[in-house]
């Protein structure tokens, strides 16, 4: 059984996609052992509660320094004894103490085809705003392992999505979620659960 901890900040539609695949029996030998949020009103928490998945909220404002907060987050994750951490709309940057201790054990879903439209400042709807502004015709989503950089880790899966002339950022965001994110995130977890991939020299290869 692959034990996963899911880190969220918002709506949790990617969390829901993982839950659905587990419920439908398509994602075998995977259990979500905790959902952790840095926002107390994240709708993702309600989604988890509906399935009796333990939830935790850790707010930066309850700690006097970032170091204390980072350590508390690290301790909290450790206490659930998870095999991998899944960032599913997690909009805070993980500290070094977590990325170093969970090397190649953290995956992230990003709403573009990395290395386009990624890195500092590119998250959520902002990604789609920039895609439309630049006039690219194809965008998509990427699942990758998380290293100490922002969106720089080894790429596991990508899926392309067309950009239409009359897209608004919201319309494009929805299409990227439906046609790419909700498919490749559970798929990447399945590949890890079935021990099908390995990281070699910063690249993900099939075993
Ligand atoms: C998703 O589009 C996800 O790819 C993005 O935030 C959204 C969260 O939606 N993540 C990032 O931008 C990370 N850099 P959700 O809460 O409904 O899953």
Please give a structural write-up.
The chain is α/β, with parallel strands linked by helices. It folds into two domains: 1-102, 3-Layer(aba) Sandwich (Rossmann fold), CATH 3.40.50; 108-207, Rossmann fold, CATH 3.40.50.170. It has helices at residues 13-23, 43-50, 66-79, 96-101, 125-134, 169-193; strands at residues 2-8, 30-37, 55-57, 84-87, 106-110, 138-145, 155-162, 197-200, 203-206. Strands 3-2-1-4-5-6-7 form a seven-stranded mixed β-sheet, with helices on one face. It has a two-stranded antiparallel ribbon with strand order 8-9. Strand 8 and strand 9 (203-206) form a beta hairpin. The protein is globular, with a radius of gyration of 16 Å. Bound molecules: glycinamide ribonucleotide (GAR).
Question: What is the assigned CATH homologous superfamily of the largest domain?
Answer: Formyl transferase, N-terminal domain
- How many helical elements? 6
Which range does the strand content fall in? 15-25%
Amino- and carboxy-terminal Cα gap: 19 Å
Structural class of the secondary elements? alpha/beta
Distinct ligand kinds: glycinamide ribonucleotide
CATH class of the largest domain: Alpha Beta
> How many domains would you count in the coordinates?
2
